[in-house]
Amino acid sequence: MSPHATNGTSTYSIACIPADGIGPEVIAAGVEVLKTLSEVSDFKFQFEDYDWSSETYLKRGQYIPDGGLESLKKHDAILFGAVGAPSVPDHISLWGLRLAICQPLQQYANVRPTKILKGTQSPLRNAHTGDLDWVIIRENSEGEYAGQGGRSHRGMPWETSTEVSIFTRHCVERLIRFAFETAQKRPKKHLTVVTKSNAQRNGMVMWDEIAQEVGKHFPDVTVKKMLVDAMTCEMVLKPNTLDTIVATNLHADILSDLAAALAGSIGIAPTSNLDPTRENPSMFEPIHGSAFDIAGKGVANPVGTFWTCAEMVRWLGQEAAADRLISCMETVCGNGVLTRDLGGSANTKEVTDAVCAEIKKQSKS
Ligand SMILES: NC(=O)c1ccc[n+]([C@@H]2O[C@H](COP(=O)([O-])OP(=O)(O)OC[C@H]3O[C@@H](n4cnc5c(N)ncnc54)[C@H](O)[C@@H]3O)[C@@H](O)[C@H]2O)c1
C-alpha cells in the first residue's frame, strides 16, 4: 500500500473491475459514494477502470490480458463488481477472473461481515438489529477451490472426475491465526471453528488440531468447535451465540450466503479478499454475484457495495472515514430508503443519492 501525497493529501489508487451483470451498476454507485466521502475527508481517490468482463472475454479469449496482474499490483486496492454471464460457463468466468486475481495475489483471508442493519428485517422471527452480528473468515487460497483434479473418459459411461481438496499446514495456520486476531479485536472475543472432521478425517482433523495449537497463543479468545451441518442450525436458531467464524473455502462460501440471507438480503453483505502481508493489493467486492435477472433495471441494492467500500477505506488506514460511511449507510436504511430485496421500493440511484446526501450532512454536524 503506497498512498502518495499530493499537496499534503493522501491519494489512493483504486483499480475498478465492474465486470458483469449488476457489477457495473453497483460499482458506479460505490465510486460515487467514495468520491463524496473523499470530498469531506483529507484523502483522495484515483480510480482506474479495467474493462475485464465476460463480454471482453468472448471478444479476445481471455478475461485478464497479458500483463494484467502486474498492472493491478501498482494500485493500493481493487474494487470488484461480480463476474458471471449466461453466455460463459460459470467455472470459466470464476476461474478466468475472480480466482485468477485472488490466488496469485495471495489474498488468502476472505473476510465477510454480516449484521442486521437498522431499518431492515431478518427473516428470523426473533432476530433483530444487534442479535446477528458476525464476521466469517473464509480460507481463500486452497481447500476445495485449489483447482486440483481432472476429468477423463469424457462422455463415456465410465467417465471419471476428481475435485481434490488441498489443505496445507502453512495456509491453514496463517488463516486460523488471522481469524483469532480478528476475534480478539471484537468485543465478544469469541471464535467458532467450523469443520467437518467427523466425515473428512484428514484435512479437517488437521484444521481442528491447528486451531487448538494456535488458540494457545490467544488465551483471551473463547473457542468453540462445530461441524458445518450443526453450524447451519446454530446460525438459524441461536444467532446471538456466534461472533467470529472461521471455515474452509467451500464451507465459508456457503455459510456466508446463508448469513447474508439471515441478515435480510444477499444485497447488503461485503467481502474483503485480503493479503494480510500487504505485499499485494487486496480486493474488495460485494458478496453477491452478477444477478443477471435484475441487471440493467437500476434496482440492484448498492448497500453491499457501500459496506465493501467502507471495508476498503478501513484497510487503507482511514478508520474514521470507514465508520462514517457505515453510519451514513445505516442511517439511510434506518430512514426506510430500501431497495426491493429489503422490502422497500427505492432504486439503486435513490439509495446512492441518499447515502451521498447523508455523508455531506454528517460532515457538517
Ligand atoms: N464474486 C462473484 O463474482 C460471484 C459470486 C457469486 C455468483 N457469481 C456469479 O453470478 C451469476 C449469478 O449467480 P447467482 O444467481 O447464483 O447469485 P447472485 O448473487 O447473482 O443472485 C442470487 C439472487 O440474489 C439477487 N441479488 C443478488 N445481488 C443483489 C443485489 N445487490 N440487489 C438485489 N438483489 C440481488 C439476484 O437477483 C438473485 O435473485 C453466476 O454466473 C455466478 O457464477 C459471481
Would you give an account of this structure?
- The protein is of the alpha/beta class and 365 residues long.
- It has helices at residues 23-39, 54-60, 68-72, 90-102, 169-185, 203-215, 228-237, 249-262, 303-315, 319-334, 348-364, and strands at residues 4-6, 9-19, 43-49, 77-82, 109-115, 133-139, 143-152, 160-166, 190-195, 222-227, 244-247, 270-274, 282-286.
- Strands 1, 2, 3, 4, 5, 6, 9, 10, 11, 12 and 13 form an 11-stranded mixed β-sheet that branches.
- It starts with a strand and ends with a helix.
- 47% of the residues are buried.
- The mean pLDDT is 96.
- Nicotinamide-adenine-dinucleotide binds at residues 22, 82-84, 90, 94, 98, 266-267, 285, 288-291, 293-294, 300-301, 304, 339, 341.
- It is an enzyme of class 1 (oxidoreductase).
- One of its GO terms (molecular function) is NAD binding.
- It catalyses: (R)-malate + NAD(+) = pyruvate + CO2 + NADH.
List the helices and strands and how they pair.
Elements: E1 4-6, E2 9-19, H1 23-39, E3 43-49, H2 54-60, H3 68-72, E4 77-82, H4 90-102, E5 109-115, E6 133-139, E7 143-152, E8 160-166, H5 169-185, E9 190-195, H6 203-215, E10 222-227, H7 228-237, E11 244-247, H8 249-262, E12 270-274, E13 282-286, H9 303-315, H10 319-334, H11 348-364
Parallel strand pairs: 2-3, 2-4, 4-13, 6-11, 9-10, 9-11
Antiparallel strand pairs: 1-2, 5-6, 5-12, 7-8, 12-13
Helix pairs in contact: 1-9, 1-11, 5-6, 7-8, 9-10, 10-11
The structure holds nicotinamide-adenine-dinucleotide.
Catalytic activity: (R)-malate + NAD(+) = pyruvate + CO2 + NADH
Keywords: Magnesium, Manganese, Metal-binding, NAD, Oxidoreductase
Protein name: D-malate dehydrogenase (decarboxylating)
